Amino acid sequence: MKFNRSSGILLHPTSLPSPYGIGDLGPQAHRWLDFLAGTGCGLWQVLPLGPTGYGDSPYQCFSAFAGNPYIISPDALLEEGLLKPEDLADYPKFPDDQVDFGNVIVWKLSVLDQAFLRYKKSAPARIKTALAAFEAEQASWLDDFGLFMALKDAHGGAPWHTWEAPLRDRQPEAMEKARIKYASAIQKQIFRQFLFFSQWSKLRQHAAELGIKIIGDIPIFVAHDSADVWANPGLFFLDDNGKPTVVAGVPPDYFSPTGQLWGNPLYRWNVHAASGYAWWIERIRSTLTLVDILRIDHFRGFAGYWEVKGNAKTAEKGRWLRGPGKAFFKAMRAALGDLPIIAEDLGVITPDVVDLRDSFELPGMKILQFAFGSGPYDPFLPHNYPVNCVVYTGTHDNDTARGWYERVAEPEKQFYRRYLNRDGMGVAWDLIRAVWSSVAVFGLAPMQDFMNLDNTARMNYPGNPSGNWQWRMPEGAFNADLQRSIKELNHMYERDKDRLPPPPPDWPAKYPGLK
Fold this sequence. Notes:
By secondary structure, the protein is α/β, with parallel strands linked by helices. The protein is built from 19 helices and twelve strands. The protein is globular, with a radius of gyration of 24 Å.
């Protein structure tokens, strides 16, 4: 799909201000969209929106289809009559600058349980009708997810492959008994999903009314401890006990001498192909009901991926295998049309990855922080960009711009100062301006860079098992002064093109040197 020149900000909903310890889909999220529209930006990028599991990572979710209940807005539930003011009167004093996931999760789930009890006791007919319609529309994944989460709770959060064999293996008699035994717990999980989808739907509608497109994120792999793998074991390489026989990762490189062992189960691509990639089609179709544009994380895995034995301790020993390649994207296009996809093509990119990306005219990614270490031929420098790419100052996996400058060696700093003709005193905005002024079709930066924050505000350190995904934006951070500054950038570099009047009819003649 051909994109129009635009710009945007990367900010996950969990990072929004809120009195309840974590950003949510309530009033502040709608205020955020109003602020973004006032800047002239046309894009809001988020991380995966699923229910987070191990390490609180949005890239390790209990489902590729479900939404994260922790970002359901209590204030919106208050408006719907599903909560009473007294239900929120004594909420804990949470930190303002980070998410304390342990305490937030306990409190938020207790609030959602209270809303569920009130729903069962006194919900108006319109909510019950809407919930029934939601269940029917989402039945292809929702039933399995509800049962999976109910069983997980009943097993104290233990991963599904450790459950008793009849439930682990989804034996029909055991499944039927579980559905009866845990009927209320299943309905509670379905109710939470209904609330998430209802609130997100209103937020997305607001974005559409403001002319803002939401960029979502699809990780190529799914978590082993997920409803997806439990409900579809034949799509993955698993042994008779449900444990992965081979897992995903990346081999050793300059940054990681033992590689990165992600641990996600690998797909049986031949089985997916035999079904016409039906599960993947539904996954992408479902995600496109939530967002407008998809960033596919680890795009290179569709061309070739690194396979590691399931019992390996590091990713040092493995092998490269061919991915599904062009057949996969042809199937997606045949089923879903010309898809709005951004290919995350960072890392060691081989000719087959480039060919796959370019065969479907997908924009790849550039990270400006990577540009200043190897001289003027570096592909991450703006003068080397193709138009059909998406450029960032950095992403959730990188330093903040200021943190990058404070960390790198002097030669890299010096090249940045020479290239941009700057003194290093305003590095975050220097990089933002370079991104916005480039030819790249989309220019984006994390909110942390607009706020000129150091690495204490970094979202994620890949490889760190804990302490990630916690950063939150303080109240008042998206203010009128910042809005004006971003709007000026969008005006100067024609990234608010759809909001500007067209050039005068005599424009080419008036400026004969421009075409």
